[in-house]
Amino acid sequence: MNLRKLILPFSLVLVIAACNPLKQVQGYQTSIEQAYETKDYPGVLTAYNQLDKYHSSKGSKIKPEYLKKAGHAAMEMENYEKAEEILLKSIALTDDIESVEMLASIYQQTGKTDKEYHLWTKYADQIKSEEKKAEVSQKLFAIEMQRKEYEKALDRAKKMPSLSDPRFMFMRVEALDATGKEEEAREVCNNLLEKTQILNRPWNGKPSTLLNGQRIGTKQKWQNTTKTRTIRHTSI
Fold it and tell me: Between 217 and 120, whose confidence is greater?
């Protein structure tokens, strides 16, 4: 009996929808909303595909709120290709930052670093949360370091909140040293050493020499004392 009660309203929606184009669209939209509320993600995508087929035949566009729900449903089902396709449509219509965050998460999970980088480069300024903005800035900074785009990474570091995580501070030292800013690199390096108590004296040699000698020995200590985010720099 309970199963019949759940199925009947959905069936009625489809029957009514078949008789009138406007009712048809509204029926698919209602189906998406109802399925999404109950976390019936396959049901969301079924209704979305019907809605997409209708709009494609009419040359019209799906409303952004239904694109976002369908994109999230595909993401929850780990159908990342479909989720990317849907979320790109949502972003193209509204530049919705929630859709951007979901798409960036998909790129991160699927190892599409270049796409994640370009996406956040375009939309990072629209992030309202300072914590999220700092997280994204660090992520972009780490990617630039991996690419050895040191000048770009240093420009970004100037706009970032104060770096307290030793991993990112050492990355900055590496970038300064790689671009010939040895004195500034040494100053930053010594400030970091003082905070982390790696050495009990200032370092007057080349920053790169100290970095190469200290990274391995302090890696485990940093991991144990620092909250790790999803970003990791392989050379540390």
Answer: 120
pLDDT at residue 193 is higher than 80: no
SS3 of residue 96 by DSSP: coil
Cβ–Cβ < 8 Å for 55, 61: yes
**179 and 92, same structural domain?**
no
Q: From residue 88, how far is each of 33, 48, 120, 137 by CA, in Å?
A: 20, 15, 13, 22
Q: What is the pTM of this model?
A: 0.69
Would 213 be classed as within a structural domain?
yes
**In the predicted model, is pLDDT for residue 204 greater than 70?**
no
Taking the CA of residue 117 as centre, how many other CA atoms within 13 Å lie in the half-sphere pointing to its CB?
Answer: 16
Is 116:100 a contact under the CB 8 Å cutoff?
no
Q: Which two tokens stand for residue 107?
A: 């790129």
The number of folded domains in the chain is 2
**CB-CB contact of 122 with 107 (8 Å):** no
* Nearest-angstrom CA–CA distance, 101 and 123: 9
